[in-house]
Amino acid sequence: MNNGLGRRIASVALMTGLTAAPLVAQTPDQSNFAARGTELGGSIGTAFASSETAPVVAGMAGWSITRWVTLEARGGWFARGSNTNGVGADVGALVNVIARRRTTPYVGAAFGLYRASIDTRTAHVSDFYRMRMLEPAGGATSMRTFTDPAWRFSAGVDLIRHRNISIRPEASVVLVHRNGSTDSITSVGVRLGYLFEDRPVTPTVR
């Protein structure tokens, strides 16, 4: 009786183990997410400045050095209303609130330059530029350009739903500085990125 019972218990244990093994292997392993990887992407959204609301598009390149930190370079174009537009470029870092996984909230900061091109005859601009437009300009053209240092702060959520595709709803604010004055541009949009992996960024299903 004891030998028969023992064989039955062993058989049940073996069958249970064989059945559970594939289930365990298919469970997503968040530790498989890459510590390193290059990403190229673009975004489109809406910008809200002190004097107008207009579309903004941007391109970026990033390199994840850990599951927490990504270095990023970004360039953007701002259609800032009638006869006014701006371009910005900066370099900074994104810091994940949690270690990188399928859904990862993050914050970011970057520093660079912002260049505004303004038609002085017709453009509606903020006081930040209006006062400077009173200064004498060389040449007879009505177009004025202003290049200033700028900080960009951002926050968003990185949604990875495919091994190579990242979708990121994001909000950001650009603070342009000059002589103690600041002009702000707030934007909201969605960015789409393509991931070039050093290691898998999505859990491997076996």
Short characterization:
With 206 residues, the protein is an alpha+beta fold. It has helices spanning 2-26, 127-133, and strands spanning 37-49, 53-64, 69-78, 84-96, 103-119, 143-162, 165-178, 181-197.
What topology emerges from the helices and strands here?
Elements: H1 2-26, E1 37-49, E2 53-64, E3 69-78, E4 84-96, E5 103-119, H2 127-133, E6 143-162, E7 165-178, E8 181-197
Antiparallel strand pairs: 1-2, 1-8, 2-3, 3-4, 4-5, 5-6, 6-7, 7-8
CATH topology: Porin
- State the helicity in percent bands: 10-25%
Query: Which stretches are low in confidence, meaning pLDDT under 50 for 5 or more residues running?
Result: 12-29, 201-206
- Average residue-wise pLDDT: 78
Structure description:
With 206 residues, this protein is of the alpha+beta class. The chain has a single domain, classed as Porin. The protein contains 2 helices and 8 strands; from the N terminus they run αβββββαβββ. It has helices spanning 2-26, 127-133, and strands at 37-49, 53-64, 69-78, 84-96, 103-119, 143-162, 165-178, 181-197. The protein has an 8-stranded antiparallel β-barrel with strand order 1-2-3-4-5-6-7-8. Strand 1 and strand 2 (53-64) form a beta hairpin. The longest helix has 25 residues, at 2-26. It is elongated.
